[in-house]
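Narrative of activities, Objective 1.

The group set out to show that a structural description can be obtained from nothing but a protein's sequence at a throughput compatible with the screening campaign. Below is one input-output pair from the validation batch, recorded exactly as produced.
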Amino acid sequence: MVSNESCEMVGEGYCPCPLEGAAEVLSRKWTLSILVTIGNFKKLRFNNLLSKIKINPKTLTDRLKELEKMNLIKRTVYAETPLRVEYSLTKKGVSLRKATIPLMKWAIKEKN
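Output recorded for this entry:
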């Protein structure tokens, strides 16, 4: 990620550097789908998420670990038999999901 100290202001005084960090997160395949799907259902278990997105289980595991490390999702483990694990968005994840809604609306509009 680029530091703000090396960022030069352009145009209307906005620096594009923070967008590079966001693009780094969002450009990973399946990231947006995972965030939006978890956000739509509030909480999802791994297999529920897997069936809704139709993603390879290893890829889903990898993305969930990355998103948890970035504090975008929360993994909650319940000490039950069988073990139950649920994924939900953190405040940061909810904020990112809300920020992507205009982009999704734009994509839908441009598709038609």
